[in-house]
C-alpha cells in the first residue's frame, strides 16, 4: 500500500527531497558495448548491420529486398487497418500536424538604427532518422509524434529504422509511416541502426538528426553520437503528477495515475491533493481497476515501487512549488479553475488543464507532442517540436556608413583580446 | 605554400571529400579522466574543488573570500578600463542585447476548431552557468555572448566559473561580467567546475544549463553531463569560408582568412574564388601580413596545415554547393550582390554579407551570437540564442464537448497499442 504523505508531517521536506532525487534510471553497463557496436558499424558498414541483425533479431539481411520495407507495403497496411483505427490515426495525424505547423519559427531580416542589416533564417535539416522500437513498445502514435514534426519542418528525407525480430513488423506502425509520409524504412534496430544513421553505410545514407524512443542501447548510442548528429533529449522513465481536489471522481484520477504506471515498472505516478479522504478513495479505486488491466503486473509494480500520494493543506498555495521541484513530464490539474496553477508551475513537460483532460488525450490526439522531457529535465528542456528538425543561420551585412559606425569598436576589442588579424581585417576597411 | 585547387581538376571531388571529412578535433584520452573528476566532485563537493584547484591552478581555496570574485571587484575593474575599451564593450553589449531581445519566442494560447484549448509557454531556466576560460583564451566578448542571451531570456541566477591560475584573473572579463550583470563568479575551472555547476556543492548551488567555451576537459565534462543539465553544442575548432570574386582587395580577404587562422593551429580558413590570379594575390598578402602578427606562429601553423583555396569556374553556380558540403561556422560572401548566395547556402553558422562585413565585426559588435556550430554541425545545429536558456511547456484543456469530439479516437488508439488504463481514463469520462 502506497503511504499517504502529508506536507504537515515533520519529516516531509526530507521525504520529498528523497522523491525528487530518486533516480529510476538504471546505471547500466551498456556504454562500452554501445561504443564497440558503433565503432564496428563505422568500420564495416552494412556487413556489421547484417551480423548484428542476425544475432539480435534473428533476421537475415541478405538480398536487397530484405533490407527495406517498401512504401507499397506501408500503404497496404494502411488500407488493411480497421476503419475506426484508421480514422483515429488520421485524426491524430491531422491534429498533430496542425499544432506543429503553428510552431514554425519566423525568419528575421531587418536594418537597425546603425544601418546594419541583421537577421536569421530557419531551415530544416536535410535528413532525419527516426528510431521505432520493435516488439511491445512499437507504437504508431510514437511514429506520428516523431515523423510529423520533421515533415512540417520541411525535412526532405525521412528515414525510419526499426528492428523486425524474426522478420515481424507491426502493421499499425507501417500504416502510421504511410500517413506521415516516411521515405525509407530499414529493418535494422538497436545501437547498430543508430550508428548507421549517423555515420551512413553503403546502403543507408547518413542523416543529420536522430530522434525516437528506444531501449538503453539505443538511448546510449544517441548519447554517444550527440555532436556527430543532432538528437532529441535522452529520455528516461515516464512520469505523471496529478494535482486534484476532492471534488474529482476518484475512479477517473485512479485511471489517470494507472495510465502512466502501466507503461513500465520504472514509471512514476504522483498524486497531490488537499483531501486525505479522496486520496484513500483513489487508492481503493487503483486497487480495484488494476485487477482488470491486461497491464496489471507492470502497473502494480510501478505503483508499489514509485507511486506517491501527498496531502497538502492548501492546494494552490502548496502544489505548484512541489510540482516545480518535481519538474514532471506530465502534470494534470484536475480542479475547477486550473489557470492560477498554469501560471505558477514553471517546470513541466506538458500541462493538462481541468477535469476533462486526462493525459491519454495528449498522448494520442490533442496535437501537442507526447515526446516530453523526463527525469526532472523539464527544468531545462522542452518537448519535441519542429525546432528539433531545423537550425538557424544568422546573417549580417554592413555598408561603408554602418561599418564606420561600429567597426572601430570591433578593432578596439580585437586588440584588447590579443587578436591582431581580427583588428587588421577591420582597420584595412576603415582606411 | 597552400595549393590552389580547381573544381576543373579531375580529382577535385575526391580532394574536396577529404577536406569535408577531415577531422581536426583530437581524439584525446580525456574521457576517463573527466569521468573520474566528475565522480569525485559529486561525492566530495567543495573539498574536491579545493584539491583540484590547488593542483591544476596553483591556487588555494581556503577562506570564504578565496572562492568568489565579488561584484564590487567586477565593478571596480569596469571603472578602471580604458575609456575606449569600456565604450567598445558597452556598444557590443547593447547591440548583442538588442539582437537577442528580438529572439524572444512568443507564447501560444488558442482554442481550435474542435474546441480544444492548446498552447505553449516559454520560460527561462532558473539558473545558468557560464564557463569562462582563464589565461590566453579569456575573452570578454565571449562572456558577453554567453551571459547576455541568458539575461535576456530572463534567467534569474547567472553563475560564472573561471580558473584563476595562481590567483590571476582577467580584468576585462570581470568588467564584462559587471556589464552583463553576472550574479556569482567562482574561482574554479576545468571539468571540476563544470561538475560543480551540474551537481551542486555546499557552496555552489546547481544550475540548469551550462554554456561557454573551454578546453578538451571542459568540453568533455559538458558532453558527459548532457542530460543532467542542458548544454550548448560541443564546439570544435573554428572555421571560416570566404567566398570572394576577383574584385576584392586581396589584402582585406587575406586579413579575413588570417583572423580565423590566428585563433588556433586547428582553425581552418578556406577561400573560394572564381579568379585564380586573385587567389595567388591573397596568398601573397597572407605571407606578408602574417609576419606582422603577434599571433604569427599560430596563424602560420593553421594556414599551412588547414588553409584551402579553391578556384571555381562560376562562383554563384558552384560556391553555394561547396559551402553546403562544408557547413562552415562562418561564411563571408564578398561580392557585389550577396543575396542569391544567402538564399542558396543552406548550411552555415553565420553569413557575412558583402565586402564591408568581415567576420570580426560579427565576433564583437554586430549583435548576433559568435558562439556558432563548428565541424559541419551547422547541418543540424544553431548558434547560441535565448532559446538555449529557455524551455517550452505545452498545455491543453478540453471541456465536455471537445472531449466528446476527440476522446473516442484516443481510446481506440490506446486499445490498439495495448494500453488499457490509457483507454479507461478516457472511457470513464465519456460515460
TrEMBL record, chains A, B:
A Gene Ontology molecular function term of the record: zinc ion binding
List of residues binding Zn(2+): 260, 263, 363, 422
Cofactor: Zn(2+)
Cofactor info, note text: Binds 1 zinc ion per subunit.
EC number: 1.1.1.23
Binding site for NAD(+): 131, 192, 215
Residues forming the catalytic site: 329-330
Keywords in alphabetical order: Amino-acid biosynthesis, Histidine biosynthesis, Metal-binding, NAD, Oxidoreductase, Zinc
Any one annotated GO CC term: cytosol
Domain of life per record: Bacteria
Catalytic class of the enzyme: oxidoreductase
Pathway in which this enzyme or protein is active: Amino-acid biosynthesis; L-histidine biosynthesis; L-histidine from 5-phospho-alpha-D-ribose 1-diphosphate: step 9/9
Catalytic activity: L-histidinol + 2 NAD(+) + H2O = L-histidine + 2 NADH + 3 H(+)
Biological process, per Gene Ontology: L-histidine biosynthetic process
Purpose: Catalyzes the sequential NAD-dependent oxidations of L-histidinol to L-histidinaldehyde and then to L-histidine.
Family affiliation: Belongs to the histidinol dehydrogenase family.
Protein name: Histidinol dehydrogenase
Amino acid at each position: 500500500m502506497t503511504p499517504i504523505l502529508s506536507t504537515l508531517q515533520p519529516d516531509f521536506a526530507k521525504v520529498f527531497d528523497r522523491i525528487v532525487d530518486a533516480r529510476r534510471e538504471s546505471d547500466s553497463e551498456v556504454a562500452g558495448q554501445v561504443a564497440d557496436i558503433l565503432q564496428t558499424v563505422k568500420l564495416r558498414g552494412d556487413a556489421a548491420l547484417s551480423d548484428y541483425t542476425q544475432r539480435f533479431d534473428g533476421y537475415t539481411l541478405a538480398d536487397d529486398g530484405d533490407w527495406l520495407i517498401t512504401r507499397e507495403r506501408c500503404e497496404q497496411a494502411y488500407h488493411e487497418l480497421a476503419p475506426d483505427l484508421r480514422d483515429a490515426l488520421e485524426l491524430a495525424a491531422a491534429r498533430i500536424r496542425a499544432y506543429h505547423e503553428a510552431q514554425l519559427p519566423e525568419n528575421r531580416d531587418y536594418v537597425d538604427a546603425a544601418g546594419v542589416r541583421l537577421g536569421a533564417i530557419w531551415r530544416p535539416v536535410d535528413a532525419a532518422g527516426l528510431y521505432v522500437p520493435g516488439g511491445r513498445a512499437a507504437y504508431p502514435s510514437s511514429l506520428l509524434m516523431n515523423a510529423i514534426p520533421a515533415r512540417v519542418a520541411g525535412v526532405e528525407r525521412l528515414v525510419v529504422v526499426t528492428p523486425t525480430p524474426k522478420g515481424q513488423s507491426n502493421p499499425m506502425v507501417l500504416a502510421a509511416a504511410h500517413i506521415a509520409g516516411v521515405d525509407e524504412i530499414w529493418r535494422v534496430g538497436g545501437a547498430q541502426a543508430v550508428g548507421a544513421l549517423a555515420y551512413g553505410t553503403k546502403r543507408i545514407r547518413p542523416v543529420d538528426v536522430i530522434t525516437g524512443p528506444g531501449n538503453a542501447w539505443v538511448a546510449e548510442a544517441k548519447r554517444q553520437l550527440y555532436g556527430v548528429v543532432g538528437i532529441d533529449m535522452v529520455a528516461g522513465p515516464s512520469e505523471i503528477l496529478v494535482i486534484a481536489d476532492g471534488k474529482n471522481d476518484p475512479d477517473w484520477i485512479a485511471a489517470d495515475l494507472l495510465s502512466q504506471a502501466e507503461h513500465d515498472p520504472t514509471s512514476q505516478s504522483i498524486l497531490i491533493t488537499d483531501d486525505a479522504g479522496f486520496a484513500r478513495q483513489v487508492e481503493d479505486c487503483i486497487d480495484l481497476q488494476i485487477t482488470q488491466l491486461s497491464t496489471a503486473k507492470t502497473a502494480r509494480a510501478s505503483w508499489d515501487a514509485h507511486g506517491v500520494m501527498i496531502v497538502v493543506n492548501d492546494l494552490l498555495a502548496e502544489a505548484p512549488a512541489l510540482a516545480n521541484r518535481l519538474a514532471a513530464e506530465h502534470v494534470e490539474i484536475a480542479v475547477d479553475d486550473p489557470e492560477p496553477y498554469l501560471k505558477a508551475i514553471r517546470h513541466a513537460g506538458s500541462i493538462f488543464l481541468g477535469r476533462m483532460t486526462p493525459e491519454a488525450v495528449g498522448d494520442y490526439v490533442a496535437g501537442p507532442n507526447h515526446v516530453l522531457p523526463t527525469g526532472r529535465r523539464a527544468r531545462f528542456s522542452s518537448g519535441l517540436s519542429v525546432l528539433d528538425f531545423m537550425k538557424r543561420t544568422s546573417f549580417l551585412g554592413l555598408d561603408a556608413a554602418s561599418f564606420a559606425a561600429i567597426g572601430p569598436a570591433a578593432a578596439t576589442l580585437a586588440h584588447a583580446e590579443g587578436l591582431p588579424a581580427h583588428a587588421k581585417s577591420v582597420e584595412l576597411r576603415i582606411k
